């Protein structure tokens, strides 16, 4: 299985960062009493029904109910609902039995450090998950006794990969006689031509992740490994007024001033930015491969394509999100059965044929040509060890802080140097609070 071997062997190069907090009560899968003869199980995730993960996990729930006779009580939550309220919810009786959660020290690592996630070591052994989730692919699910991602005990299981790409509406490019960009100069020239024709080229959202991903991609286009290691792994000092961060922040500001990015996007959320691309308001959208399946479903009458960001050695991305079992769940055995089903051939192949990047699919079963193109692109990123992680990973509060600083940049209330100073102050405070640097 060429596709599976490439992803597992090359891994997703997730960062092995220094820890946040000491683990409080590392439970195991047998520590909490299991409910006898349960009739239902509560599952949460935040994927759209017509996305690759949404389709695959709906099938997993269907298989689970048939296999176990246990009813699934599924609740769809938004990314923000889970991100902002996870600790409170998981420390209450309202916690689900299994849920999708974001990976990294600032998210899953923080919950593990608070004793809110189940130690999955026993289940990993029982189901041989480490045979499918191996190498650096496993890093996002493993945390050591300080909550450090990349080693120690298992607290989450991923079943797909992701990176951030530029999506292009070819119909809009053709309408204005513009070529799909191959270089950064091409990209900026294309954006200028759209502006000249009264079209804002980039669909952006600053209220959530889209613009911070673009900002980080611009950083990565100038950053070296030393910078990335300092930023993500706290190994050295981050030069916040240096070339990489200054270039990225100044470029965002320039693109706003030139009309490539709308000044009105400061309150726009990710879903709205994606919808605006899908309905043809904007010809370009820089975001994750998690949108790919939805674009296939919702843009059937549009001619669109994608590519990694031009002229860069590193791209934004990592493994996919992880399934976790809350420590408060009394149905952990059933939750583990469900996770195992998401890694089954049937579910993995469905994800692949729906536009996702499964980690254990049979490539011979992937029939969609556009999806094969996506897989080829992602494997190329892996072969070059080009995944550059995400900008909000270093501290538990940096996601919101980055968005806030970028909102000020876009609306013009703070200049480039001031925004970088804000980012530095917030980053330093978060790292200091985590106690990861002497």
From TrEMBL:
Keyword Flavoprotein appears in the UniProt entry: no
Top-level taxonomic group: Bacteria
Signal peptide boundaries: 1-24
InterPro entries found in the cross-reference section: Bact_solute-bd_prot1, SBP
Keywords for this protein: Signal
Name of this protein: ABC transporter, solute-binding protein
Keyword DNA-binding included in the entry's annotation: no
């Amino acid at each position: 299985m060429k596709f599976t071997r490439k992803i597992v062997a090359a891994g997703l190069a997730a960062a092995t960062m220094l820890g946040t907090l000491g683990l409080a009560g590392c439970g195991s899968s047998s520590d909490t009493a299991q409910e006898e003869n349960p009739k239902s199980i509560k599952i949460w995730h935040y994927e759209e029904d017509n996305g690759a993960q949404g389709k695959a996990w709906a099938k997993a729930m269907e298989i689970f109910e048939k296999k176990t006779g246990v009813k699934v009580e599924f609740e769809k939550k938004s990314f923000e609902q889970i991100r902002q309220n996870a600790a409170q919810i998981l420390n209450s009786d309202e916690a689900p039995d299994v849920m999708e959660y974001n990976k990294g020290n600032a998210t899953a690592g923080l919950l593990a450090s608070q004793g809110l996630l189940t130690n999955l070591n026993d289940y990993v052994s029982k189901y041989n998950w480490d045979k499918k989730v191996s190498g650096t692919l496993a890093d996002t699910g493993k945390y050591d006794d300080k909550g450090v991602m990349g080693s120690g005990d298992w607290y989450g299981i991923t079943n797909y990969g992701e990176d951030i790409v530029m999506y292009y509406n070819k119909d809009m490019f053709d309408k204005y006689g513009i070529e799909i960009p191959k270089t950064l100069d091409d990209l900026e020239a294309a954006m200028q031509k759209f502006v000249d024709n009264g079209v804002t080229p980039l669909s952006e959202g600053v209220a959530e992740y889209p613009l911070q991903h673009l900002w980080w991609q611009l950083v990565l286009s100038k950053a070296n490994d030393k910078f990335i290691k300092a930023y993500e792994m706290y190994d050295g000092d981050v030069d916040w007024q240096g070339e990489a961060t200054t270039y990225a922040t100044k470029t965002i500001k320039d693109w706003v001033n030139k009309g490539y990015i709308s000044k009105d996007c400061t309150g726009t959320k990710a879903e709205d930015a994606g919808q605006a691309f899908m309905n043809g308001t904007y010809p370009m959208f820089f975001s994750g491969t998690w949108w790919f399946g939805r674009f296939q479903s919702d843009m059937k009458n549009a001619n669109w394509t994608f590519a990694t960001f031009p002229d860069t050695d590193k791209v934004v991305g990592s493994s996919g999100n992880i399934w976790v079992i809350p420590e408060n769940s009394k149905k952990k055995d059933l939750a583990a059965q469900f996770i195992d089903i998401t890694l089954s051939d049937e579910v993995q192949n469905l994800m692949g044929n729906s536009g996702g990047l499964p980690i254990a699919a049979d490539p011979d079963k992937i029939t969609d040509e556009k999806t094969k193109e996506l897989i080829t692109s992602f494997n190329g990123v892996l072969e070059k060890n080009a995944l550059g992680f995400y900008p909000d990973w270093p501290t538990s509060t940096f996601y919101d802080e980055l968005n806030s600083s970028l909102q000020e940049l876009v609306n013009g209330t703070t200049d480039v140097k001031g925004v970088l100073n804000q980012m530095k102050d917030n980053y330093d405070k978060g790292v200091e609070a985590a106690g990861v640097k002497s």
